[in-house]
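Figure 6 in text form: structure in, sequence out.
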């Protein structure tokens, strides 16, 4: 045995030198682990879950949720954000957690021909944000997102309704189109649904309801690009039934006695056109002039007062029957 190993101090020095040499050779510059501070140790323990207290710590829960969200693990993020809100709804970061929860649902949305559940859940969670955390800094964006969700839902109904229409399933199509008008009347899809409803009821043989929706489209949206399609449809209906544009207005005191199926339109013009007044009633006198912006029927009868009321009464002019007074 060499002489140097007979001394304990020398032996210790040699051993430490060997360990340091081997340790340095095991790691390259790129593989050297970074020093960990207290916060970094907490981050490392977030996914370990080695203590029960960490499952209730608001900071740990929220950091876990944020990590999932940033990695696009939205289902896992939703679970963690909801866990945070269940335990700490009065926490100062609760509005933020609610916003991120809704946003996670929103980011799971796919195309309009896919499942609409994420859209509905996102809209619901954004509404909760507005209701339970009023005047938060996220309220304005939440309202924008709600509007986007409703637009997607309207597009989905229009897509499905068109799908049914192309396959001659007209009743199912009519229900979808009418749902858009009832639920999302201010959406662009509601205007298109009026034209589609008119076409659908024409296919069903319900020409009066087809007329109602075509006239509603033309009168309520005079500058819309689909107005010409509505006028064209009215002209075709006039050819099929020359009396279709004649309006018989029942007295206000007379209530309709014939009920209509739920999927039929409920426009104000329907009661004036469907002839459902009591048999003993006498129709009011018809209008002989055709005001501007209204359809002039085959006998010169105007539909202006039988349709949706307008803010002001347009001046009456002489129009050729069977045309639209411009």
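Output sequence:
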């Amino acid at each position: 045995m060499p002489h140097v190993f007979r001394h304990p101090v020398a032996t210790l020095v040699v051993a430490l030198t060997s360990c340091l040499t081997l340790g340095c050779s095991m790691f390259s510059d790129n593989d050297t682990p970074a020093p960990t501070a207290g916060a970094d140790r907490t981050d490392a323990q977030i996914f370990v879950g080695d203590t029960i207290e960490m499952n209730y710590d608001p900071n740990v829960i929220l950091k876990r949720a944020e990590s999932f969200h940033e990695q696009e693990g939205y289902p896992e993020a939703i679970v963690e954000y909801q866990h945070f809100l269940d335990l700490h709804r009065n926490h100062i970061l609760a509005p933020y957690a609610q916003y991120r929860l809704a946003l996670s649902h929103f980011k799971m949305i796919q195309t309009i021909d896919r499942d609409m559940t994420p859209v509905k859940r996102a809209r619901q969670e954004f509404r909760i944000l507005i209701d339970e955390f009023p005047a938060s800094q996220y309220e304005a964006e939440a309202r924008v997102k709600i509007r986007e969700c409703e637009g997607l839902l309207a597009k989905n109904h229009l897509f499905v309704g068109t799908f049914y229409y192309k396959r001659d399933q007209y009743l199912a199509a009519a229900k979808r189109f009418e749902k858009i008008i009832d639920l999302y009347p201010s959406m662009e899809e509601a205007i298109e649904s009026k034209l589609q409803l008119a076409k659908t009821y024409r296919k069903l043989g319900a020409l009066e309801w087809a007329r109602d929706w075509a006239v509603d489209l033309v009168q309520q949206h005079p500058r819309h690009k689909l107005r010409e399609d509505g006028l064209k449809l009215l002209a075709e209906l006039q050819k099929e039934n020359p009396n279709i544009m004649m309006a018989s207005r029942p007295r206000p005191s007379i209530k309709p006695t014939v009920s209509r199926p739920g999927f039929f339109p409920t426009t104000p013009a329907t009661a004036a056109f469907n002839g459902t007044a009591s048999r003993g009633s006498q129709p009011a006198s018809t209008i002989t002039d055709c005001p501007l912006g209204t359809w002039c029927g085959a006998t010169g009868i105007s539909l202006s007062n039988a349709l949706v009321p307008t803010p002001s009464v347009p001046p009456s002019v002489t129009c050729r029957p069977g045309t639209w007074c411009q």
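Caption detail: DSSP finds twelve helices and four strands in the chain.
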